[in-house]
Design goal:
The protein has two domains: about 130 residues, Aspartate Aminotransferase, domain 1, CATH 3.90.1150; about 240 residues, Aspartate Aminotransferase, domain 2. It is built from 13 helices and 14 strands. Helix 5 runs parallel beside helix 6 and helix 10 packs antiparallel against helix 13. The protein is about 40% helix and about 15% strand. The protein has a seven-stranded mixed β-sheet, sandwiched between helices. Strands 1-13-14-12-11 form a five-stranded mixed β-sheet, sandwiched between helices. The protein is of the alpha/beta class. The chain binds pyridoxal-5'-phosphate.
Length: about 400
């Protein structure tokens, strides 16, 4: 194996780079998860999580990856055979839909081209065709990590309100929470699904459901089988500062530090930083004469940028060269985008020079792969980064 010096550039759109102070926080000794010190930690954590989700409602923390929180959102709110509306925004929306089908839900999958977000007008049309309110939930991936497209959740909410439709709104924020503006309460979201390993700057292993009053009421009658994912015992145990199973203590230490970092920077500043890095990345992509996968400027992602390669060029080859020569990992094209697209993650613990280094590596990798480049995209990005 080649000896590597310096830090690996982990520029996949999650898991993301973990700040040193978060790593250090996680290195503390494990404590009794039924003792008073742990109870204080839980209370502090739950209070600090609320502003990140933009909610006053309970936030449930699972020792699980995001997929577990997807399942929790469905099994706590729905019953076998319930109709659910999902949007085909990309690979992750497709996986969530597959899970819903597997759980016995009747899924209406609104087709998409993997370059646009969930379409509020398409939703309005489906809701208008459902006067009997047979649709029980609408599932949307806020930021589709496979494409770099951010759906307009406020407009999705407005479409539900305009139709006077009572369906629950379930939103996956796994690659947007802590990176892109998100408001569980203001946008009337019923269940927000999130994970630790992206904007929250933690290793994988924690996931979350923020749960509205309406979702809690739905959980009283929902009949899909649930046990581990059941919200109620967690909410009850959390009141006293505990979990009814063994929590992931050291990840929770890390979470407290990560939430401290986000609060110290300020959420609006965190979102602005991500938007600026995303704009600089798109400037680079265009400077190279390549195409940004996201086709609607209202839906550009602050967390990642999908880059479409010209016909006849293999995106995986570019990633391979970048990894081998410059020790940088880029995101692969997923599902139907395999080989056609690579993804640049620019979220989490990230600054101007991390982005400049990332884009320099991408530019050199493209050149070495023989992809024809129009000009030097890096300069276009630096022009943006130079501006305070
Ligand atoms: N949803 C989105 C938008 C994701 O990006 C991911 C993973 O990257 C998932 C769901 C699945 O989460 P996990 O891999 O943590 O189970």
């Amino acid at each position: 194996m080649t000896l590597r010096t310096g830090r690996h550039f982990l520029q996949i759109p999650g898991p993301t780079n973990v700040p040193d102070s978060v790593l250090r926080a996680m290195a503390a000794p494990v404590i009794d998860h039924r003792g008073p010190e742990f109870a204080e930690l839980t209370h502090r954590l739950l209070a600090a999580l609320s502003p990140v989700f933009g909610t006053e409602s309970p936030v449930i923390v699972y020792p699980a990856s995001g997929t577990g929180a997807w399942e929790a959102a469905l099994v706590n709110t729905l019953s076998p055979g319930d109709r659910v509306l999902c949007f085909e925004t990309g690979h992750f929306a497709s996986l969530w839909r597959t899970m819903a089908v597997g759980l016995g839900l009747d899924v209406d999958f609104v087709p998409g081209d993997w370059r646009h977000g969930a379409d509020p007008e398409a939703l309005a049309a489906r809701l208008a065709a459902d006067p009997a309110h047979t649709v029980k939930a609408v599932c949307v991936v806020h930021n589709e990590t496979s494409t770099g497209v951010t759906s307009r959740i406020a407009e999705i909410r407005a479409a539900l309100d305009a139709a006077g439709h009572p369906a629950l709104l379930l939103v996956d924020t796994i690659s947007s929470l802590g990176s892109i503006d998100y408001r569980h309460d203001d946008w009337g979201v019923d269940v927000t699904v999130a994970g630790s390993q992206k904007g929250l700057m933690l290793p994988p292993g924690l996931s979350f459901n923020a749960v509205s009053e309406k979702a809690l009421r739905a959980s009283e009658t929902a009949r899909l089988p649930r046990s581990y994912w059941d919200w109620q015992p967690v909410i009850e145990a959390n009141r006293k500062g505990f979990f009814h199973y063994t929590p992931a203590t050291n990840l929770l230490y890390g979470l407290e530090e990560a939430l401290r970092l986000l609060a110290a920077e300020g959420l609006p500043e965190v979102f602005a930083r991500h938007a600026r890095h995303a704009a600089a990345t798109r400037a680079a992509v265009r400077g190279w004469g390549l195409e940004v996968l996201c086709a609607d400027e209202r839906e550009y992602s602050g967390s990642l940028t999908g880059v479409l390669l010209p016909e006849g060029h293999d995106a995986d080859k570019v990633r391979e060269i970048v990894l081998e020569r410059f020790d940088m990992s880029l995101g692969a094209g997923l599902g139907r985008l395999a080989g056609k697209v690579f993804r640049i993650g620019h979220l989490g613990h990230f600054n101007d020079l991390t982005l400049a280094g990332t884009l320099a590596g991408v530019q050199m990798g493209l050149e070495l792969s023989g992809v024809p480049l129009a000009s030097h995209g890096l300069d276009a990005a630096l022009d943006i980064l130079r501006t305070p």
